[in-house]
Amino acid sequence: MLAYRHAFHAGNHADVLKHTVLLRVLEHLNLKDKPYRLVDTHAGAGGYSLRDAAAQKNGEYLQGIARLWDRKDLPGPVADYVALVRKFNTKGELEHYPGSPTLAHAVMRPTDQLRLFELHPTDHRTLQLGFKDVRSAMVMHADGFAGLKGQVPPHTRRGAVLMDPSYEGRDDYGKVVQTLRDALLRFAEGIYMVWYPQVSKHEAARLPKQLKAMAPKGWLHATLTVQKPDSQGFGLVGSGVFLINPPHTLHGELRTVLPFLAQVLGQYDGATFQLEQRAV
Ligand SMILES: C[S@@+](CC[C@H](N)C(=O)[O-])C[C@H]1O[C@@H](n2cnc3c(N)ncnc32)[C@H](O)[C@@H]1O
User: Fold this and answer.
1) What are 121-140's pLDDT values in tens digits?
2) Out of 25, 108, 111, 261, which residue is the most buried by the measure of CB atoms under 10 Å away?
3) Pocket of ligand 1 contains residue 80 by CB under 6 Å
4) Mutual orientation of helices 100-107 and 13-29 as an angle, nearest 10°?
């Protein structure tokens, strides 16, 4: 089942959280000259027109990146993220949203390696086309859960993994845990970042607890809740990112970022955030 298309969601509040944090991880890796590898196990199409019918259907980006677009009071990490998205919108208007592979590639060095997995045939083709001239990138039409073990550890033993599944089926939650467990055995010092939705499912509530138990060398967990559940008690109310072996500076950065995002992206009075870590 591959019904999920990120084009409907590009630039929403969840992308804002995920991509702001992803850029901090990569900037941290950029502090040392030694090359690293980023594996994006669920890469999407790499870029999305916000003028297309998909993005316009629910206008999710209007409650996400659009709310930040013209603000002059952005905290540093959010300002960096918006400035990067602006580079893909040269006319100054918000028309295009770059996905995680494109944002990552924009800040990575030519010696760093990008490994991209995408299963949806259309999104894979778009991604492959977008990266066809990028020598440091490999685009794979394959299952990112299964493919990760062939990508870690990188030769330099420096690297990060973004795991951003669609959670269409409940088994994605279990696959995240199992895939990370295997990857940690091969590459314990890697930085692992998992995105997950805040939805009323037992599996979603359990996921951060399971991940905490797997990360003896330290973790960071950040959530951003922006809206109420619908009248049936369902719907995406927010999202979370869980990092294993996070950069030591990330917690301090998110202390200013998360309250700001909760205030600016919040769609009701109860909008809130959570930030916790276990540092070693
Ligand atoms: C949330 S989207 C990715 C968004 C992207 N990471 C970004 O931030 O721009 C999830 C993507 O995973 C793809 N997908 C679903 N199951 C997959 C799997 N097992 N392996 C690789 N890709 C998969 C979907 O087609 C979808 O494009």
Assistant:
1) 999 999 999 999 999 999 99
2) 261
3) no
4) 30
